[in-house]
Amino acid sequence: MKLGLLTAPFPDTALGDVADWARSAGFEALEIACWPKT
Questions:
Q1: Within a domain: 29
Q2: Total number of domains in the chain
Q3: Is residue 38 a part of any domain in this protein?
Q4: How many CB atoms lie within 10 A of CB 5?
Q5: Fewer CB atoms near the end CB (10 Å): N or C, the chain?
Q6: Residue by residue, what is the 3-state secondary structure of the chain?
Q7: In a domain, 23, yes or no
């Protein structure tokens, strides 16, 4: 099992920045939120 982070709470932050932060915070996986905007 890996500890991951969902990216949905960071809609205004670039994905690369979220990934960099998650790595530095010790997360091993990202669940990337991807759904159509309505």
A1: yes
A2: 1
A3: no
A4: 19
A5: C
A6: CCCEEECCCCCCCCHHHHHHHHHHCCCCEEECCCCCCC
A7: yes
